[in-house]
């Protein structure tokens, strides 16, 4: 397979998603990392985006609620190269009515070599990485 390089600018485009049982955890994490997040462009699914915008006082590009197509909108933005990385605190122990959408989103992120954090620890590592402060050339499949 051939690959092409997709540059990530210094100002990253970050998607933030959390299932209901993980929203509080994402809000606390985002509040703790508010100054870092403020340096980037933030996207979120509907309810999560509204909560984050209120809690952080930052502009969030809000898409539809996850079960109503928001997960798929994020996936589309990943496929189009419009999202640089995904923080998705999903709840593996709670059945989700839109589970196929969740799996599709995660699959798209992997296909397009998009960094994904699915828990607070991986989100901490990603946001504190030295790669956050500069440009990065991400290799993506050249389909």
UniProtKB/TrEMBL annotation:
Cross-referenced InterPro entries: Methylgl_synth (IPR004363), Methylglyoxal_synth_AS (IPR018148), MGS-like_dom (IPR011607), MGS-like_dom_sf (IPR036914)
Catalytic activity line of the entry: dihydroxyacetone phosphate = methylglyoxal + phosphate
Annotated binding of substrate, by residue: 19, 23, 65-66, 98
Active site residues per record: 71 (proton donor/acceptor)
Enzyme Commission (EC) number: 4.2.3.3
Database matches in PROSITE patterns: METHYLGLYOXAL_SYNTH, MGS
Family: Belongs to the methylglyoxal synthase family.
Protein name according to UniProt: Methylglyoxal synthase
């Amino acid at each position: 397979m051939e690959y092409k390089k997709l540059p990530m600018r210094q100002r990253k485009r970050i998607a933030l998603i959390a299932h209901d049982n993980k929203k509080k955890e994402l809000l606390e994490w985002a509040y703790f990392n508010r100054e870092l997040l403020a340096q980037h462009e933030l996207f979120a699914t509907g309810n999560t985006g509204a909560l984050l915008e209120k809690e952080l006082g930052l502009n969030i590009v809000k898409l539809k609620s996850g079960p109503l197509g928001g997960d798929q909108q994020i996936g589309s933005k990943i496929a189009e190269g419009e999202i640089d990385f995904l923080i998705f605190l999903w709840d593996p122990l709670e059945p989700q009515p839109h589970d196929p959408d969740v799996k599709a989103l995660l699959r798209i992120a992997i296909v397009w070599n998009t960094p994904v954090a699915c828990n607070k620890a991986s989100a901490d590592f990603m946001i504190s990485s030295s790669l956050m402060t500069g440009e990065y050339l991400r290799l993506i499949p050249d389909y």
